[in-house]
Amino acid sequence: MSEFPWAFQQIEPTTWAYVSSLLMLALFFKFSRLWSIRNLDLVLLVLLAPGLLLYNSGVSLERQAAVELAKLGQPVTLSLTSGGLLESQPEPKPKPPQETQAAPSEPVPPAEAATGPTPLSASDAGKDDLVQANSDASLSAAPDPNDERKIWLARRVLSHSFLYGGFLFMLIVGVLFVIRLFLDQLLVRRPALETNLSLGGLWLLVVSLLSFLIANITVSSPTRTDVSGAQSAAALLDMGQQTKPMVDQEMGPAYPMLHLLPVIPTMLRDANTRVGLDAAALQVQRNESMIWVAKLMAILSQFAIVAGLVWMGGQHFGSWQNGAGMATLYLMLPYTMQMSGAVDHVLPGALLLWAVVLYRYPFWSGLLFGLTMGLVYYPIFLLALWLSFYWERGARMFLYGVGATVLLMILSLLLFSTEDRTFVQNLQAMFGVWLPRVSALKGIWEFGWDPWFRLPLLVAFVSLGTSMVAWPIRKTFGTLMAYSAALLVAVQFWHGYGGGLFMAWYLPLTIATFFRPGVHERIARHMVH
Known about the structure:
Layout: H1 13-28, H2 37-46, H3 48-71, E1 76-80, E2 86-90, H4 128-131, H5 145-182, H6 199-219, H7 228-237, H8 247-251, H9 271-279, H10 288-316, H11 320-332, H12 334-338, H13 343-357, H14 362-376, H15 383-389, H16 395-412, H17 423-431, H18 454-467, H19 477-494, H20 507-515, H21 524-527
Antiparallel strand pairs: 1-2
């Protein structure tokens, strides 16, 4: 707790997961109808938390391992994936000429290293009991590098176990979400189940939670690894600088400039880890403008998601209380608090939500859909579903909107093309025009899963997406919401750069599907202007 009553303190992810889960059950669980579909939906949303907690624990241990390695005097290479996974790998260090008996696999003690980074000393004092347990009294108090290396290896192994368990749990829950969303059309009877709180109380929660979310993003301080994309962006805008041409291979296909924004870490980090990383991140200050651009985009995206859910409840579902309830539920989710600063998560989710909200205006819906598709590429697999929905009326205007946005985004790539990063390379990265990769993958694929297994998953997904041209034959507004969310959940299974973490792509539409009333009469022929 802060000693100042007006100061904002980030909440520890585990604490927020427990508190928010209990609050969601208190506000939305139907105690009078224990076996209602609403209760099942709430359980599915609560099940997202354990996987995220495992992932966050793995990231924290990974950072601590990086600090321990730095204390050994070993150079550390840190990289951040689009999903936020921090990876540290030791680089080989040349052995001093006078050192002849040290094993090649053992790190060189800092006291004997002729060159290399200076060991961090901010938290060395707290580890004296560990590193001096077997030291000889006649020797100095310097830590034994073998003991430090064992600590580093133990944390690396444990962090990988947590990360693998987190990704696996999130994908298993994703399977349950896909089943629930595809079966949504069979739920003909959808009684209106109001929240357990009045409309005034819900508005208070929406305003309060959104204020805390904005404050959480605003006060977050990224480290050097979080602003590595901003450094590449500065080089990309300077024609005389060497660019980073292979960023798409590390973070996946998307609009090139999107990956160059810094990630805003909105979860509370371990104090010792922050000391080690922040001490090596003094150059963050010169990326201040890009940091604030990322913060502003993340805040506006979160506001757009909340406004879209409220508007959908009031205008399409006929209940402002349901709209406020959907917004409250979204803001309470542990994922919203932990990943709210990742622009490549929340911006596509906000755009796609508003494309659904404006479904009665196919041109404007197409503009937003095309912008989403150009930013993160993966919604391109929803195109068959959306075109078949508008086929009876509005398909031409929808295509005009999609084409106009995509064309403008393609032309904008000319502004960022250089000799090192050509227009063709940018266009290739924007639409993922390459063979499916089975190497240098992130997420669950780097923890033992055979990358070649990704190929049949991709084929099955593409077949599923294209088959929606023919089924269901009669597509309603509810079909558009539920199946769009289901396909974006299914993307996570073959996503090679942190699949399972991109929940903001489908959570707003999923929550809207859970709350929607019967909309079987809302087809394009009757509803589209």
